[in-house]
Design brief:
With 116 residues, the chain is an all-alpha fold. It has one domain (2-104). It has four helices and no strands. α3 runs antiparallel to α4 (79-100). The termini are far apart.
C-alpha cells in the first residue's frame, strides 16, 4: 500500500511540474509574439528596450503583474519564486523607463554622428 501511495504522489508531482512548465513555455512564447509584432529582432531586445507606445506600456504592466502573481504563487511552491523574478524585473524596469520618459530614445539605436 505504501508503494501505491508513493506512486500516486509521484504522478501528482509530475502533473504539477508539467503544468508549470506548460504555463512558463506559454508565457515565453506569448512574449516572443509580442516582440515580433512590435518589430524587435529578439525577445531579449524587446525586454531591454524602453516602451515606445501605449500598447508596449500596457504590455510592460501586464508582464510586471504576471511576475507578481508568479512570485506570490512561489510562496506556495518555492521554485516559482525564482521564475517569477524575471517577468517582475523586466516588467518593472520597462514601467520605470516609461514613467521616467526614457521611451523617447531607443538604446539600440547608435547616436547620430556629430557635425564638425
Amino acid at each position: 500500500m505504501a508503494i501505491g501511495m508513493v506512486g500516486l504522489l509521484a504522478v501528482l508531482l509530475a502533473v504539477i511540474v508539467g503544468i508549470i512548465v506548460w504555463v512558463i513555455v506559454g508565457l515565453v512564447r506569448g512574449e516572443q509574439r509580442k516582440a515580433r509584432a512590435a518589430g524587435y529582432p529578439s525577445l531579449s531586445a524587446y525586454l531591454r528596450a524602453a516602451p515606445r507606445t501605449d500598447v508596449e506600456k500596457g504590455d510592460a504592466a501586464d508582464l510586471f503583474l504576471k511576475g507578481v502573481v508568479i512570485c506570490l504563487l512561489g510562496l506556495l511552491f518555492p521554485p516559482l519564486l525564482l521564475i517569477g523574478l524575471f517577468p517582475l524585473f523586466f516588467g518593472g524596469r520597462k514601467l520605470m523607463y516609461a514613467s521616467m520618459g526614457l521611451g523617447l530614445v531607443d538604446d539600440a539605436e547608435p547616436p547620430p554622428p556629430r557635425q564638425a
